[in-house]
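User: Just a sanity check before I run the rest of the batch. Below are the structure tokens for the first item. I only need the designed sequence back.
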């Protein structure tokens, strides 16, 4: 019981570690006459109690650091996935670049109520990223806040999806690309032929037809010698393509894993999906195959599972390379919030990690759950369901994004 009291007290203390210094907390505990039981009030017992609390706090701090690091990694990864998904939406759905079809754009909250719009005055708009959304008006791009007020006037020729990332946005001005801050001021002047958004504080830029990496000060950290980099840096490694082969470089531009793959994704959870001799497998950070290249396609690991294709069907493997969910689906997205959107016999539903149907396949299209809601398509329109499979926002939109934030972009073709 006494140990339990000490533990409970130390747990309360641990909750304050973000606002107080741990050593100060420990000193305060050592002097406390009320919360430390009487049995701990001898000098030796108090010293033991202090050491015990210090040990608990140290472990808690270490755990908080791990959680913070993991959350930061997945926040960045989800941001990167949002970029890739936005590109996929533009490619496979209605073309949202220089759109000619009139669309009524707006943003809705999780109650389905418009927070901005709908409006026909905007030609195009991206989702909110770091509290600002890029929008196109009279063929020029600017940025609005969540109240729909313009904070950066439309003056740019183009904006790099998703808009702001790492507090900077890639924009095109007078045929060249650079980066602006949230006040619309140039932080990195427009001198590049093309660029990609910042990811882990580094961005890919193109000069003279070749790609390299810059930091947030605009300094080149590698030479511009690469054909392309698909994902940028993940931790300390980045995938790059040169002479039609993919490899991995560090932040000095030196090869850690020489270019020898037909394609390569970024490292996630210490493994990278790579293609060699038309088969996919997974390598470790030493460039050694941890999971042999036996698959027809593969996607990066997310939350301990990765999608793999065998023949024309998709399933999931674990980090040991074992097929834990049979390759029986037409297509599958990564697990988010414990569920994965999968397609079976032309219909989409959601499974859990035990391969049990959580939401039966019934939709024409679907995307992953974010913030408890998933966009799904039914009868040609997009709406949003909860994890019971119930529509919380009825299908009514021609374009709908994830709820990355407390609101999401929607569009209705006029």
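Assistant: Here's the designed sequence for the first item:
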């Amino acid at each position: 019981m006494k140990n339990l009291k000490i533990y409970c007290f130390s747990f309360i203390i641990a909750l304050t570690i973000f606002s107080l210094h741990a050593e100060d907390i420990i000193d305060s505990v050592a002097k406390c006459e009320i919360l430390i039981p009487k049995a701990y009030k001898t000098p030796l017992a108090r010293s033991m109690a202090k050491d015990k609390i210090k040990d608990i706090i140290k472990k808690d701090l270490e755990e908080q650091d791990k959680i913070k690091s993991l959350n930061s990694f997945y926040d960045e990864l989800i941001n990167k996935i949002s970029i890739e998904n936005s590109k996929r939406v533009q490619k496979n759905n209605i073309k949202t670049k220089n759109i000619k079809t009139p669309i009524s754009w707006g943003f809705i909250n999780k109650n389905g109520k418009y927070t901005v719009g709908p409006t026909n005055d905007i030609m195009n708009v991206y989702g909110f990223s770091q509290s600002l959304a890029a929008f196109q008006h009279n063929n020029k791009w600017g940025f609005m806040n969540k109240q729909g007020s313009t904070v950066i006037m439309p003056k740019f020729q183009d904006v790099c999806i998703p808009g702001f990332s790492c507090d900077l946005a890639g924009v095109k001005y007078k045929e060249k690309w650079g980066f602006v801050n949230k006040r619309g001021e140039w932080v990195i002047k427009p001198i590049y032929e093309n660029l990609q958004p910042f990811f882990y504080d580094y961005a890919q830029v193109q000069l003279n037809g070749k790609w390299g990496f810059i930091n947030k000060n605009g300094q080149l950290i590698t030479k511009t010698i690469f054909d392309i980099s698909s994902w940028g840096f993940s931790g300390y490694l980045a995938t790059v393509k040169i002479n039609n082969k993919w490899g991995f470089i560090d932040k000095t531009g030196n090869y850690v894993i020489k270019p020898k793959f037909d394609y390569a994704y970024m490292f996630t959870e210490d493994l990278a999906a790579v293609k060699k001799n038309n088969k996919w497998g997974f390598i470790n950070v030493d460039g050694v195959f941890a999971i042999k290249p036996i698959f027809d396609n593969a996607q990066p690991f997310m939350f301990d599972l990765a999608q793999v294709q065998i023949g024309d069907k998709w399933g999931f493997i674990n980090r040991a390379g074992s097929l834990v969910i049979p390759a029986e689906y037409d297509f599958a997205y990564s697990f988010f919030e414990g569920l994965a959107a999968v397609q079976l016999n032309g219909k989409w539903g959601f499974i859990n990690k035990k391969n049990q149907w959580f939401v039966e396949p019934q939709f024409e299209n679907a995307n992953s759950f974010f913030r408890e809601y998933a966009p799904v398509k039914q009868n040609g329109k997009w709406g949003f369901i909860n994890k019971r499979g119930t529509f919380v926002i009825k299908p009514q939109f021609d374009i709908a994004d994830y709820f990355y934030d407390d609101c999401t972009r929607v569009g209705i073709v006029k």
